[in-house]
Amino acid sequence: MKGIIFDFNGTMVWDVKYQEMAWKSYFKKVTGKNITNKELEEKFYGVPMRISLKEHLFKDSSIVVVDKHAEEKESLYRKAIIEDQNNFKLAPGLKNFLDELKNENIKMTIATASIKSNVDFFIKQLNLERWFDVNDIVYDNGQYKDKREMFLQAAKNIEESIENIIIFEDSTAGIRDAKEIGCKNLVAVNLGNDDLKYKNIDCIQVISDFDQFNRNNI
Fold it and tell me: Do residues 94 and 58 both lie within one domain?
């Protein structure tokens, strides 16, 4: 392989509990209803924030209003992390893996459905500039309609075709999008150990720890 693209939330960091806390609190506030983990997986995870909010909560709202709501929800997410920041760290085995990739000069970047304020927060909290050119990171800036477009832009940023790239992804939506654009080297990251979720996924490997990743695939 000539390049690697990482999804971020649920792939590079084990942040599902913070996402669930933020989404459930926010959803209850704006709708008066509760939302299940299954609904979050199906409607909101792995999809650009603006797109999911517009589609499921604010269909008739302007992008300015949607952006305001996106920032409100993400501020709850960041607050939850800050309150527990000693436990907010890279996924198991990832730090050593990133060091290996950097030492081997493997081109890599991140494609995340998060908005810029979150990306800036992640860079600062986790020192991501140690491994990545932060200018190459693809995030939800309002121009991407789905993760397919984001993956393709990330591949362009590291100057590799999607066929020559390994994509690490955890969400079912992100996995589907990676396959639809022709990624043949998909690694499903199962940090939650939800084996049934990946039962029928066609990928080169399912990992719950980056030490498990078969380096022969690079």
Answer: no
